Amino acid sequence: xxxxxSLLTAIIMFSGAAQAGLFDSNDFKCGRDDAVKALVxxxxxxxxxxxxxxxxxxxxxxxxxxxxxxxxxxxSMQVTATNVSTSGGGSYGLNCSAxxxxxxxxxxxxxVSKAPNYLQYVTxxxxxxxxxxxxxxxxxxxxxxxDNNKDILFSEFSRTDASAAMFNMSVLAVNxxxxxxxxxxxxxxxxxxxxxxxxxxxxxxxxxxPDSVRNSMKKEQVSWVNNKxxxxxxxxxxxxxxxxxxxxxxxxxxxxxxxxERISYLTGNDD
Length: 271
Description:
- By secondary structure, the chain is α+β, with helices and mostly antiparallel strands.
- The protein has helices at 33-57, 67-75, 106-114, 119-123, 162-174, 176-208, 211-232, 245-267; strands spanning 79-89, 94-103, 128-130, 133-145, 152-155.
- It is built from eight helices and five strands, in the order ααββααβββαααα.
């Protein structure tokens, strides 16, 4: 499902349409309510643009649902800009600073809880997760009025990839079930391989024991096998539909652990 795992580490944007309305250029500041609203809309629109582009090119994700489903998830995410301040003018426009925060969909949190490496999709390196949201502190950027005194142009963003994170979170949320299922199947395959290796090793150790030792330990070995099944459960049939994947993983892991302990016991390495 996921074809690339690297995130954009920065978003550098050179222009953007903002909230419609007439601004007084003499009173234009980064922290004006309408300017803050325009900034929030800019981040949302930029994330939407990334989604629309990637849906066509499949450069980052594969999609098995209509783009509207991903867009609706993106639209449901709240974006806020606080602590907005102006620190003077620069070559492009006003030098601005803000704290940007985005709510994380519960479905995205579910994915991250199953696979923590997906956290980078949410934070992009600079963001911090707090209270089911991701926050970027000290984001600097430039803002200026367009010639029509109606639109605001933004550029030179630093220390944030809020738009990319928003886009990533929306796709992860919509594809939660498929991602978790894929992760579970991968865990199951690893657990099966680990058990098969331990089981082969145990059989090899058992065969290397002298005949007299094997004969004297047969009842003990049978008892150990029964105890292993009692504690861990039977190795599931590959076609079993009554045991979910996580339960199967747990059975394999438990049996593998007990098998490794038995190998150590039989070889005298159980110190």
